[in-house]
Amino acid sequence: MYKVIYAKDLLRKRTEYQKKGLRIPMNLSYRAIAVKVGVSADSIHKWDGKDMSSVAIAQRAALKAAPKLFTLDEEAILAGWIVYKDLVFESSTTFRFKEFASNHFGREMSPSFVTKFLDRNHLSMKLPGNAKASESNAETIQKAVEFLESFEILASLNGLSPSQIKVFDKTYLQTSPWHKNIRHIGMKGGKSRKETPERGSVHEIWTTLSGDGTKGPFYVSTKDPKLSAAVNFDETEGHISYIPIKKSSNGKNTLPAERSMLEYLFHMIHIAKFFKEGDFLVFDGERSFATKAVKRYMSENGLYPFVIQPTQLHQFISPCDNSFHSVFKLAYYRKLSHHSISSITNGEKLRMARECFQEIDENTVRDMFTRCGLIAKGQDKKRIVYDLMFEGLGILNKHNEHRVQLYRYLDWCVNNDLEDLCSSLNEDILKFAGMIQ
Q1: pTM > 0.70
Q2: Where are the chain's structural domains?
Q3: Among 185, 211, 307, 364, whose CB has the most other CB atoms within 10 angstroms?
Q4: Which pLDDT tens digit goes with each residue over 5-34?
């Protein structure tokens, strides 16, 4: 644009000479101006006969461009639909997006159009498996608030210190996180996650955290006897527990997950001595965590179990799921990316994972407990739940146009008697999104 401005100034001087009937100097010829500006003489000649204001240039460009599939207002409505779906935890796949545009605007979008549309609007689709509308309804949110409030009351009544609040969960590590056929450490046959019915069933990494910021030992549960024999952590480094898959007389497994849980509890209570009498144990609703045998064993050792409620929101309220596992896995995959995966044994990968596990410091762990509302700091519990659920959404962060697009979508729904397309929003979500006071 600076070339146009410079050329216009020189052409204005040239026009003044012409109006006065004077001879045009050589340094104001089309060729001389073209050299000064850095364009062709033909371009200068064309510019001299056209309106070169920014508005006129934009109008000519619009006339030359291919016709747009949607108007700017329609694109804002389409973008608002995606923001709305993300905000209420509903599915917004490419198929559903194209279906919405076809049903309400009568136009079909190509895959390339969808890709470019998402890119210029800083948006992404939500996978159906990750989109659960039940997570964002008022009843579910209220249950989470009540769980945090009751947990705080019980902790206060029992005079619990942060060191007596423990959370645990298990996770899995993958051998090649960026490959389409992702395999877990130790998974036999090289099958992908989609092809393998027992995803991550060979090795389980157990995370144990305390409210005072300390971590339990790096604990691995495996059904592979070769790994447990090949990798020998000393008790200061971690522990690998071999859980054989025993068969009953009718050939069915006899609850290997329950045996794994009991073995884990035994180690944490009697070997590592990380779980102590009077501790509150917080965990998700996995069946093997709360069988009759497991509950009895916890009770015999003076431990008080608390299953996160509601179960739909455990991934937000548990410091393991919400924060620790993502930090831990990111560090592990970054370290793994600097090695040739085929040349590293599973034992070496586990040692690498243990290093990443130990590198997460106590201050970080303490902050995770506070952030999830398990350590009371006087925060409003409803605000904590909404913060945990909606963090990372573009509408609440740097892209303010998402808020405008959501407003345009809601306005379009109301004006066209399509309130059923925005019925999942409630007052609390609108307040949190900054749509109402």
Answers
A1: no
A2: 2-55, 160-360
A3: 211
A4: 777 788 888 888 888 888 888 888 888 888
